[in-house]
Amino acid sequence: MSIPTTSSGIPRLAFGCGTYYFKYGSDTVNQQLVDITKTALSKGLRHIDAAECYNVDKELAKAFAESGLSKEDYFVTEKYFAGAGDYSVRSKEANPYLHLKAFLERVSIPYADLYLLHSPFIKKETHGFTLVEAWKYMEQCKKEGLAKRIGISNFTVDDIEEILKEASVKPEVHQIEYSAFLQNQTPGVVDFCKEHGIELEAYSPLGPLTKGDKTTEVGKKFDDYLNSLEKKYGKTKTQILLRWVDQKGIIPITTTSKESRLDEFLDVFSFELTPEEVKTITEIGAQYRPPLRQFWIPEFGKYDQ
Ligand SMILES: NC(=O)C1=CN([C@@H]2O[C@H](COP(=O)(O)OP(=O)(O)OC[C@H]3O[C@@H](n4cnc5c(N)ncnc54)[C@H](OP(=O)(O)O)[C@@H]3O)[C@@H](O)[C@H]2O)C=CC1
Ligand SMILES: O=C1Nc2ccccc2C1=O
């Protein structure tokens, strides 16, 4: 089994090396991540989502080398660690261009398929360059072939507009938190990206399943509806939610601690929800209050009031 790609060549489901595997600040190599990445690659799940702050370069270097695959056979995303909204932490490297060069050397691959600014929290006083200048470093990465595509993560519409004003290459991908219970990470961002031809990736797509409250009226209604779809299609709720994200035109980024679940991920494209079912999940999910937000709460929680 393999994962279909978008028209621009991005595999339509990714395996994430953050969250469960996030090990910022730890130098111990996580053999579980090495093993599951190798298994994912061998099964055909070949879109790997990494980031500087996940600190998984050693694991990826090992998994890729031991996979026996050539670079063209798998898709790697890396993210430059811009830091958080309090500007207290950031990348070890002096700028996004130098970070990507160091990453490629550490992981022993010639290029990244996608390189993202992990967040927009960049300013001259703390980073030595502005957000627009950071984007220029990203453009340099693309120009030199170090990154096939460049993009952003966790940007508001205003942040994207700031970049678009000065960009020679516009962001090709925007990675945001997105699930049935959080359908706009920040106001208007999904429609804005769609209107500007920026492909969207959804992290934490399974939030409704892992963190949703089934004791609320909407949570229960949503779960009941997923139960009915589970029965109809003979697919798990995990698969139904991932397929819903895909049918919304967004690339889900999920992860797992269990090898058995990789087969579930690989079997997301063998069924199709009807337009009415996609609409019903969208409508019930949108009623969930407050929206289910798991990341960047100090920065974006204000939008949930
Ligand atoms: N750009 C950014 O700022 C961010 C990017 N990310 C990226 O997105 C990736 C995925 O994020 P994440 O939030 O983990 O994504 P998901 O919402 O897909 O959650 C994945 C988790 O869901 C669990 N799960 C799956 N099915 C079920 C089920 N039926 N019942 C209970 N639990 C289930 C898995 O556990 P199990 O082990 O049991 O399968 C796994 O730990 C990250 O690894 C990272 O690469 C994440 C956060 C921020
Ligand atoms: O996977 C992730 N876990 C995180 C925690 C805080 C900020 C970003 C992330 C990720 O990208």
UniProtKB/TrEMBL annotation:
Report the InterPro entries cross-referenced here. Answer: AKR, AKR3C2/3, Aldo/ket_reductase_CS, NAD(P)_OxRdtase_dom_sf, NADP_OxRdtase_dom
Where does the record place the site Lowers pKa of active site Tyr?
Answer: 79
What Gene3D superfamilies does the record tag this protein with? NADP-dependent oxidoreductase domain
Q: Look up and give the organism this protein is from.
A: Ogataea polymorpha
UniProt name for this protein: 2-dehydropantolactone reductase
Q: What is its EC number?
A: 1.1.1.358
- Enumerate the catalysed reactions: (R)-pantolactone + NADP(+) = 2-dehydropantolactone + NADPH + H(+); isatin + NADPH + H(+) = 3-hydroxyindolin-2-one + NADP(+)
Does the keyword section mention Phosphoprotein? no
Every NADP-dependent oxidoreductase domain range: 16-284
Gene Ontology biological process terms from the UniProt entry: ketone metabolic process
Please list the residues that bind substrate.
118
Q: Does the keyword Oxidoreductase apply?
A: yes
EC main group:
oxidoreductase
Q: Extract one GO molecular function annotation from the record.
A: 2-dehydropantolactone reductase (A-specific) activity
Could you say which protein family the record assigns here? Belongs to the aldo/keto reductase family.
CDD domains reported for this sequence: AKR_AKR3C2-3 (cd19120)
Q: Where is the active site?
A: 54
Q: Which UniProt keywords apply?
A: NADP, Oxidoreductase
